[in-house]
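_Full entry_
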Amino acid sequence: MKKIFIVLLTFILSLLFVGCKTPTEEATLKKFSAYSFEVFDTVSTITGYEKTEEEFNKVKTEIFSLLKEYHRLFDIYKKYDGIENLYTINKVENGEKETKVDKKIIDMLSFSKEAYTLTKGNTNVLMGSVLSIWHDYREEGVDEPWNAKLPPMEDLEKANEHTSIENLVIDKENLTVKITDAKAKLDVGAIAKGYAVERVAEYLESLGKKGYLLNIGGNVRAIGVKGDGTPWLAGLEDPTGEKEFLDILQIKDLSIVTSGSWQRYYVVYKCSSCDSDGFVIENGDMVCTSCKEKTVEPKEYHHIIDKDTLMPSTNLTAVSVVTKDSGLGDALSTALFCMNVEEGLALVESLDGVEARWLTKEGETHYSTGFSQYIVKE
């Protein structure tokens, strides 16, 4: 989830020891890692310190089991036997019908409505009618790049008439969800993965675990510190490729979530002469399918859609959020990406325990006032 995609952002983690370990520590805790491709349609990595591999394997099995449960509950693309999930909620055609669901769905959707208010509607889980159109065009464009097209604005505008968060009715007492507009759809890609990661982190903390790092498709959450007592290190990828990292951060009991434009996108080949989509190859040249001119130019369209323009946001290249709650970090990173730096900075500065880093299209970097405390100085 958070859409079926090439990972929204790849965090390159440095797990090197910074301090010296005593012989007792060396013998007590060992570092172990495990990987999975089975949850949220992305690469998941768990790194942890335990006395034995047997204990680590027990914990990592529980972690992947929890993540798989959340993945199935929050999946908008597939039905699973024996459970009512977001897919089944979206399939209800009668706008008055309630769906009985697991409390985990109730809690996540309730959190999503709070995030909607906090982000002034920039993170809206009821944007599914619009996002599903973009999803279908993006999938087709990736599969057949020569036929890649943009969704008609008329279709997007009609779909946008069915995105009011007021259409999402949650009954916490009876554990039911109802979407009162039959054409509205849920899409929790901006929240679900981070929310699930945070619930798993809470579970580990309840067990007294203090030496784990979760990296679920780029959503990074540290539980405690490394085995030698030093902070975890995470490198923020440079989308330009000019250097290895934008910054290296040190974190303890915190999450890092980044939204970016360069890893999940598709390319539309538009003709600069007639503005048509699509091309054919003739004598080795890309030729417009409509006017037959050799004036076809590629343009990338990423997956983060601005609620006001209904098009991919053009303000930024990347936003990274550091905060305790990975679900909040997920929701904020999407919202901040759709704001300009000034209004995004104002939002971040108004929140306790939240810091952010912005990278603009022009390559400029902006930080919230407390972000520098996490940067490893060279």
Notes: The CA atoms of residues 336 and 359 lie 11 Å apart.
